[in-house]
Backbone:
C-alpha cells in the first residue's frame, strides 16, 4: 500500500480518512479519534493531504506540515461537486481526496499562529462594533417611544442622553431613567473594548514590516494592512494580482456563453470583512480627491465617467493588485511607479 493522496474530513472529535494511491485507487478508509490523528500521520511516509478550510483546519495543517506532509486547504464549495452520493463523513473524505488531486484547484493560504491571533483580534473588535451599534440603536429607539429623538451617530448619545436623564421636565419615569443610564454605561464599556482592541492591532502593525509597507498605499490604514497581511499569508500562492482581487471578490462576475462576454456586478466572494475595509478605504481616497484641484490622473478620469460607488470598487481592485505586487516581490510602495517605468 503506497499512499500518495489523503483526504481528511475533520470534525470536533472524529476524523474520517480516505487515502488513494498514484492511480487514484482507494487503499485506505479509516476513522480516527482526535488524539489518534497525530500518531497516525507521524507513522506515514510524506504524502499530499487535502482538507476543507473550516474550523481548526489551519491548526491541523500546521501540525501535519510539521510531520513532513504537504497540506492543501480547499474551500468547501469546491469540494461539494465531487461528492458522488449522499452526504456522510466517508463520502466527504473521498471527495476531498479527489478534489486535492486537481491541478488547478484553488487553495486557501495556511495561516500561522501569529496571523490567526491578530485575525482573532479583528473578529473580536468587529463583534464589539456590531454590539455597540445595536446598543446605541436600542437606546435611541427606547427614547423615541417617549417622544425624544436623538440624531444619528453614536457621539450624539454620549452628548444628549446625560442631559435627557437629568431633565426633570420630560416626564420620564424614574425606573426608565435608571434603565437608560444602565444601557449608556454598557455602551461605554463596549466603546472601551473597541478602543483597546484597536490599540492592540496598531501595536501589531507597528512591529510588522509587511503591514507598514502596505499602509503607505492611499486608502490602506493600519486596520486594513494588518488584516490583509494576516489573511493573505504568502502572496506567492496567488499567480498574479488579479487572482488576489478575485479571491477578495472585487472583480466582475461573469455570465458568458456562445462567445458573448457578459460581465455583471462584483462577485462578492471571499472575506466580506477584507472587502469592506478595502472599499471603505477607497471611498476615503475619493472624498479627498474631490477636494483637490488636481486629483490623481487615473482616479480623476475615472470619476468623470463613472459613479462614485463604481469608482470606489475599481480603486479597491487596483489597491488589491498593488498589495499583491508589494508582498509577492518584496517592494516598497512608489506613487509614481508607473511613470518611472
Residues:
Amino acid at each position: 500500500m503506497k499512499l500518495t493522496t489523503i483526504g481528511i474530513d475533520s470534525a470536533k472529535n472524529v476524523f474520517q480518512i480516505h487515502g488513494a494511491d498514484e492511480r487514484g485507487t482507494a487503499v485506505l478508509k479509516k476513522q480516527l479519534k482526535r488524539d489518534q490523528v497525530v500518531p497516525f500521520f507521524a507513522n506515514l511516509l510524506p504524502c499530499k493531504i487535502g482538507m476543507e478550510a473550516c474550523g481548526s483546519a489551519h491548526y491541523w495543517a500546521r501540525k501535519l506540515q510539521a510531520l513532513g506532509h504537504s497540506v492543501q486547504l480547499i474551500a468547501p464549495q469546491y469540494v461539494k461537486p465531487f461528492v458522488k452520493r449522499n452526504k456522510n463523513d466517508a463520502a466527504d473524505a473521498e471527495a476531498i481526496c479527489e478534489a486535492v488531486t486537481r491541478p488547478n484547484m484553488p487553495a486557501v493560504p495556511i495561516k500561522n499562529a501569529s496571523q490567526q491571533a491578530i485575525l482573532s483580534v479583528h473578529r473580536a473588535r468587529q463583534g464589539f462594533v456590531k454590539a455597540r451599534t445595536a446598543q446605541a440603536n436600542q437606546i435611541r429607539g427606547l427614547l423615541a417611544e417617549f417622544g425624544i429623538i436623538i440624531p444619528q451617530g453614536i457621539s450624539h448619545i454620549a452628548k444628549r442622553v446625560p442631559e435627557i436623564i437629568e431633565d426633570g421636565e420630560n416626564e420620564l419615569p424614574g425606573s426608565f431613567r435608571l434603565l437608560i443610564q444602565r444601557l449608556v454605561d454598557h455602551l461605554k464599556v463596549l466603546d472601551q473594548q473597541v478602543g483597546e482592541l484597536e490599540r492592540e492591532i496598531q501595536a501589531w502593525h507597528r512591529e510588522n514590516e509587511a503591514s507598514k509597507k502596505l499602509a503607505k498605499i492611499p486608502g490602506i490604514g493600519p486596520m486594513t494592512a494588518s488584516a490583509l497581511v494576516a489573511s493573505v499569508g504568502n502572496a506567492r500562492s496567488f499567480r498574479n494580482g488579479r487572482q488576489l482581487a478575485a479571491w477578495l471578490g472585487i472583480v466582475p462576475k461573469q455570465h458568458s456563453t456562445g462567445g458573448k462576454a457578459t460581465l455583471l456586478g462584483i462577485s462578492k466572494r471571499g472575506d466580506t470583512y477584507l472587502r469592506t475595509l478595502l472599499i471603505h478605504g477607497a471611498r476615503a481616497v475619493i472624498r479627498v480627491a474631490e477636494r483637490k484641484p488636481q486629483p490623481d490622473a487615473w482616479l480623476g478620469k475615472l470619476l468623470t465617467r463613472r459613479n462614485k460607488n463604481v469608482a470606489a470598487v475599481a480603486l479597491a481592485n487596483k489597491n488589491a493588485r498593488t498589495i499583491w505586487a508589494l508582498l509577492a516581490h518584496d517592494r516598497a510602495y512608489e506613487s509614481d511607479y508607473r511613470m518611472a517605468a
The CA atoms of residues 8 and 17 lie 5 Å apart. Strands lie at 5-9, 14-20, 26-33, 48-52, 70-74, 252-254, 263-266. The mean pLDDT is 89.
